[in-house]
Amino acid sequence: MCNTLARPLVGLGLVVGRLTSWLVLLVMAAVLITVLMNFFGVNVIARWDERVLLFGRGITINSITELQWHIFGVLTLFGATYALHLDNHVRVDVVYSNLSLRSRAVVNVVGHCVMLIPFCLIISWLSKSFVEMSYISGEQSNYGGLTDRYLIKAMLPFGMVFLALGALGQVIRNIGVILDPSIDSDPPRN
Q1: What is the extent of the structural domain holding 80?
Q2: Number of domains in the chain
Q3: 116-137: b (≥16 Cβ within 10 Å) or e
Q4: What does the pLDDT look like over 110-128, one tens digit per residue?
């Protein structure tokens, strides 16, 4: 029963990982465009009359440079959910690997319930005002880069909620292992 409850939440990590993995291509494209713009001495790629979300009234070398860092940040943030899904996150594996299956499940449940999930929820809750302030103030780059910074900042609470949901799925699955160690507790790999 625990595996049935956990499967959609644990699978969320796989979906998030597959979707955000495509951001690597966007980061590479942004870096390449920035290098080429620098090489050719081009500052403005395009200008237009109407305001466009995130880019304002044009695309400049500064907006592309900022975009590459923001995409990389989103990739890293949501990549944590995928790392949790694959069980590749940071922990003391020297100790953990020598524990029994049931003991590992207990460590996972306690670690997720005491540390990871509360941390994610606190950061998500506290960053909400951070995003609201950015939206209300119309925060944007001071150097002709990206506008609508609230969109980038909103990734922090969303990323933390996704990570907390993935951790909740792991907790439910590990409770199943504690109750019945014969359950296959290996995370789905994909």
Answers
A1: 2-179
A2: 1
A3: bbeebeebbeebeeebeebeee
A4: 999 999 999 999 999 999 9
